[in-house]
Amino acid sequence: MAARRRALPLLVAAALALAGCALESPPKPDEIRSQALANVAVPGDYVARGGAEGAVADDWVAAFDDVELTMLVDEALNYNADLQLAAARVELAAAYAKLAGAAIYPSVNLLAHGGGKMGGDGSGLSGVGLFVSWELDLWGRVRSQAASGSAQYESALADAQFAQASIAAGVAKAWILAIEAKLQRDLAEEIARSAERAAGLARDRLRVGIGDAYDVALADSTVETTREAARGLALGQEQARRALETLVGRYPGAAIEVRASLPAMPGPVPVGLPSELLERRPDVIAAERRVAAAFHAVGEAKAARLPKIALTASVSSVSSSLFVLQNHSNPVWSLGANLVAPIFNGYALQAQVDIRTAEQKLAVAEYGRVGARAFGEVENALSAGFAADEREAILARSVASNARALELAKDRFRVGSGDLRAVLQQGVALGAARASELRMASERRVQRVNVYLALGGSFEATAPRADAAEPTAVSTAAAPANPPAR
Fold it and tell me: Is residue 429 part of a domain?
């Protein structure tokens, strides 16, 4: 008996030494990229033109120099429904990570019993016991489970950060489009008023005998066409305002006021290097963390096929008011261990290994999909932005040419060498050119937002006040870098 007691501490020490073995590390990001993007030759610089040299800059919302936009982004971070959902997912992932690591520590339970005739228990027994059980993580099953939960939490946190960036970009684009919708409506109403003046002139000429009914009918038709266009743009303005209000968490009543001019166009955007993109974008980081979580899940499934050893200890005290117990020693102490080894389970454990291995392959493939999409989004946004710059310059020249042509048509009409139809047609052409120029000015700013989002730079919106009276979404920007202590 004494020899067994002396051997037990040695057994425990050996088990603890084995349990302290380090886990195998998950694949490094470079290893994942080489596997998931094997056919992607990343160039030294982006192919599309439009970017400037230098590291990717943060605080891109401030680059538009629009206080109202900054306030709207801040409002969306507090009240947007999608961000509320993302924040809840982060909290859920943190709780799961904490649960996954709980088995690393001993389990301690207290059991007490008391009874008598009044309680319907005729045994007369009463007692209390403290029971401790601790699984020795010899093969790393529990630690793999904890590491998988931690990686899943980090993935959820990165997903929430990308959701924040996406919502900030969505608000910026919705703000720009709402302003454009207002300006397009104003332009359409101005064109309609010009058509009404032309129609009045045609009726005046008909009344004094120097015009004809054809010019009046043509002018009236142009008036109705421009009025219909203005009404359609009014509806578009309402819808743009509702989209913006929904993003910031307000009721979509089309009541939000927008400014009377587009925000300032930011200067050239430093784009960094393509090789740095996958290390910066939160959605790519989230995909990489999912690969790590799947890797540790494979390790957990493999370790589950091996024996489980747990140390147990207890102390208890039992008494009876009805009879004398045979063992008078109180309290009673015990120390031991148990072993559970799987023998046959219908290949269920091996199937779990196969499932987790397949899930890891899926995670790697998903990383490749997200990474390829990231490269494509940057190249597309840069290309679209560069094209928009050139097109706006072309449209500006088109507007100037159409304005000059309209003045010439008016002059010819006044001197009798031209007809009203030419004036009306040229007025419509000028209006269309001005609308296209406005559309492209808005498009330039939208594509600039797309560049910022694709590059993965931070928008650094104002953080919510800690003393806010109304409840707000959990800010992932303030979330801990690691999951809660287990």
Answer: yes
pLDDT tens per residue across span 311-362: 888 887 766 655 555 555 567 788 888 888 888 787 889 999 999 999 999 9
Query: What is the full DSSP assignment across 352-412?
Result: HHHHHHHHHHHHHHHHHHHHHHHHHHHHHHHHHHHHHHHHHHHHHHHHHHHHHHHHHHHHH
Residue 96 lies in a domain: yes
Helix or strand or coil: residue 195?
Answer: helix
Q: 394: Cβ–Cβ under 8 A, 6 or more apart, which residues?
A: none
Strand, coil or helix: 48: coil
> What is the residue-averaged pLDDT of the chain?
84
CA distances from 459 to 23, 278, 476 (A): 37, 18, 14
Q: What is the CATH number of the domain that holds 437?
A: 1.20.1600.10
* CA nearest neighbour of 147 among 375, 482, 384, 418: 482
Separation of alpha carbons 162 and 183, rounded Å: 31
Whole-number Cα distances in Å, 411 to 192, 239, 251, 342, 455: 21, 41, 51, 98, 52
| Bridge partners, residue 334, by sequence | 314
* Percentage, residues of the chain above pLDDT 90: 53
Considering the domain boundaries, does residue 25 fall inside one? Answer: no
For residue 361, the one-letter residue type is K
Q: Is the pLDDT of residue 438 over 80?
A: yes
435 close to 187: Cβ distance less than 8 angstroms: yes
Task: Tell me, yes or no, whether 333 lies in a domain.
Answer: no
pLDDT digits (tens, 9 = 90+) for 110-139: 888 676 554 455 556 677 888 888 888 888
Q: Do 252 and 328 meet the contact criterion of CB atoms below 8 Å apart?
A: no
Query: What order do you get walking across the sheet with 107-113 strand by strand?
Result: 107-113, 125-136, 308-320, 332-340
Instruction: Provide the whole-model pTM.
Output: 0.82
Q: Number of H helices and number of E strands within the chain? A: 10, 6
The number of folded domains in the chain is: 1
Report the alpha-carbon distance of residue 285 to residue 159 in Å, rounded: 8
Pick the closest to residue 127 from 118, 115, 135 (CA basis). 115
List the domain range (segments joined by +) for residue 364: 31-105+148-306+349-470
